[in-house]
């Protein structure tokens, strides 16, 4: 676990688990069932969250979701490639059936400026034409710079721009937590 | 300013570039082969030597990354009117291009250009010196052959590669002799003694082994055999074997293919069937020759991306100066 000193825990493992279960139910409710659902996580942590949501959807519906979950890397579509050090892309994995005419739920850990999602929509358009695209985020911390909103949110977390919101997941970080810390710290 | 002038690079950097090429390789499976990463960037392919596959490969790589790609060839340009390399380079740079891919018959020309023009330069083959993207695509194709879909992050540790042909005059051999050992491969240079480099022959300054007999190397059952093109245009007046002697000693004939076992076959192309290798060898399932061509686009996309995408390229990706 890599939680730093001065960081305040906003969500613990149980709360993260409950938030994901709730999002899974909301996805099914909004879609009137599991038909055509495809989950695409945005690397790194969005991919693990998408997998967890897929596991929950499989539990709830009794339908296998293994071939309905994937990863969507947005690196090549970012609008800040020039200004930042070279970013290494991560693999994109799209279910064999593709995204055409599917209901694609993009899954990310934190919704912040909205620029990652803008890039994700472009990346998705290169792969095909989904019937509907929805957005699920574990945390919405505000400060949008683009007209983008999430359809499913685990936790609204009002924050100052100077604060750091960190999502820790067991698969990557060894434990589940959402923390917030003062940028000055 | 960063460039790709040589295939000599640290192991981690080589693996990073190959992994990046794996990401780029995914575009092959797509209907829409276009990524916006280099939108608004302009790349000039400055080719002073004939080349079809390398130039087209760089052109496709640049275009799939949305860069504007302009081809300038030596023939028919101001170069044939006597303009110097420096003036040509400065003129192209003054037009506002972001990167230059250069192929030249003169060893060292890309390095000179890199010093002069203040833009990232990619060496697409210079004289008998180096051809770094060829070595990278060879490593990429071989890594995929060996590790399949789980190639990411992997090197070529313990993989035994024999490079066969006119080693002394081959920039492909030189770049591979630099890159493959950095990835952990054991390289043997095979060819007629007059065409083996003296440094490798007398104790291997490159850290690779030289062996004149292809038959002995085949008996050792290497993991991969890289057959170099017999470069007729570079042989004029040289001490070299005749075609008949070459076939007898160093061609991958059907008989040698049968003894070779399941080694992967590589060839940088264009190949002379019946000279460097038999048609049966070229068309066998051991041949990775067309995979090398596909790999070329992915590797060159990775190189262009790592040199041109960011105004502040990180140290981890891309060939070192």
TrEMBL record, chain B:
Pathway in which the depicted protein is active: Pyrimidine metabolism; UMP biosynthesis via de novo pathway; (S)-dihydroorotate from bicarbonate: step 2/3
Q: Does this entry carry the keyword Transferase?
A: yes
InterPro entries per record: Asp/Orn_carbamoyltranf_P-bd (IPR006132), Asp/Orn_carbamoylTrfase (IPR006130), Asp/Orn_carbamoylTrfase_sf (IPR036901), Asp_carbamoyltransf (IPR002082), Asp_carbamoyltransf_Asp/Orn-bd (IPR006131)
Pfam families reported in the protein's UniProt record:
OTCace, OTCace_N
Q: Which SUPFAM superfamilies match?
A: Aspartate/ornithine carbamoyltransferase
Q: Which residues bind carbamoyl phosphate?
A: 53-54, 103, 131, 134, 269-270
PROSITE patterns per the UniProt record, alphabetical = CARBAMOYLTRANSFERASE (PS00097)
Residue ranges annotated for the Aspartate/ornithine carbamoyltransferase carbamoyl-P binding domain, each copy included: 3-143
What Gene3D superfamilies does the record point to?
Answer: Aspartate/ornithine carbamoyltransferase
One Gene Ontology term from the biological process aspect of the record: 'de novo' pyrimidine nucleobase biosynthetic process
Q: Name the NCBIfam families for this protein.
A: asp_carb_tr, PRK00856.1
Q: Which family does it belong to?
A: Belongs to the aspartate/ornithine carbamoyltransferase superfamily. ATCase family.
Assembly, in brief, is:
Heterododecamer (2C3:3R2) of six catalytic PyrB chains organized as two trimers (C3), and six regulatory PyrI chains organized as three dimers (R2).
Name this protein carries in UniProt? Aspartate carbamoyltransferase
**Gene name, Swiss-Prot/TrEMBL:** pyrB
């Amino acid at each position: 676990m890599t939680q730093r000193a001065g960081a305040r825990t906003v969500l613990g493992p149980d709360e993260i688990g409950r938030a994901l279960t709730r999002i899974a139910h909301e996805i099914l409710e909004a879609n009137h069932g599991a038909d055509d659902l495809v989950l695409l996580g945005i690397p790194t942590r969005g991919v693990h969250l998408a997998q967890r949501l897929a596991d929950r959807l499989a539990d709830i519906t009794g339908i296998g979701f293994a071939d309905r979950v994937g990863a969507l890397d947005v690196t090549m579509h970012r609008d800040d490639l020039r200004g930042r050090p070279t970013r290494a892309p991560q693999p994109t994995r799209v279910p064999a059936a593709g995204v055409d005419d599917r209901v694609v739920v993009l899954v990310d850990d934190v919704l912040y400026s909205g620029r990652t999602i803008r890039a994700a929509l472009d990346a998705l358009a290169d792969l095909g034409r989904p019937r509907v695209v929805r957005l699920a985020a574990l945390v919405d911390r505000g400060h949008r710079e683009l007209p983008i909103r999430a359809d499913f949110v685990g936790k609204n977390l009002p924050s100052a721009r100077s604060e750091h919101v960190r999502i820790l997941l067991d698969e990557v970080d060894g434990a589940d937590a959402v923390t917030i810390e003062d940028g000055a710290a | 300013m960063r460039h790709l002038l040589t295939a000599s690079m640290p192991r981690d950097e080589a693996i990073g570039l190959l992994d990046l090429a794996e990401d780029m390789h995914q575009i092959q499976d797509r209907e829409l082969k276009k990524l916006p990463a280099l939108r608004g960037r302009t790349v000039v392919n400055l080719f002073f030597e004939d080349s079809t596959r390398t130039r087209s490969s760089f052109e496709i790589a640049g275009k799939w990354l949305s860069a504007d790609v302009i081809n300038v060839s030596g023939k028919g340009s101001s170069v044939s009117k006597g303009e110097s390399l420096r003036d040509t380079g400065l003129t192209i740079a003054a037009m506002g291009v972001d990167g230059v891919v250069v192929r030249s018959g003169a060893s060292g020309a890309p390095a000179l250009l890199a010093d002069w023009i203040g833009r990232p330069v990619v060496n697409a083959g210079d004289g008998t010196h180096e051809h770094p993207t060829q070595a990278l695509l060879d490593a990429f194709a071989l890594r995929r052959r060996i590790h399949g879909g789980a190639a990411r992050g992997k090197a070529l540790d313990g993989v035994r590669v024999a490079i066969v042909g006119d080693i002394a005059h081959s920039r492909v051999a030189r770049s591979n002799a630099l890159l493959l050992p950095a990835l952990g491969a054991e390289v043997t240079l095979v060819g007629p003694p007059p065409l083996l480099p003296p440094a490798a022959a007398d104790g291997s300054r490159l850290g690779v082994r030289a062996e004149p007999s292809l038959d002995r190397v085949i008996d050792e059952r290497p993991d991969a055999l890289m057959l170099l093109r017999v470069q007729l245009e570079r042989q004029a007046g040289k001490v070299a074997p005749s075609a008949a002697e070459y076939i007898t000693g160093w061609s991958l004939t059907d008989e040698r293919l049968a003894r070779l076992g399941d080694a992967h076959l590589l060839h940088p192309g264009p190949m002379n069937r019946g000279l460097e290798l038999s048609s049966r060898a070229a068309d066998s399932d051991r041949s990775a020759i067309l995979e090398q061509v596909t790999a070329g686009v992915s590797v060159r996309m990775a190189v262009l991306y790592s040199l041109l995408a960011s105004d502040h390229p990180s140290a981890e990706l891309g060939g070192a100066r």
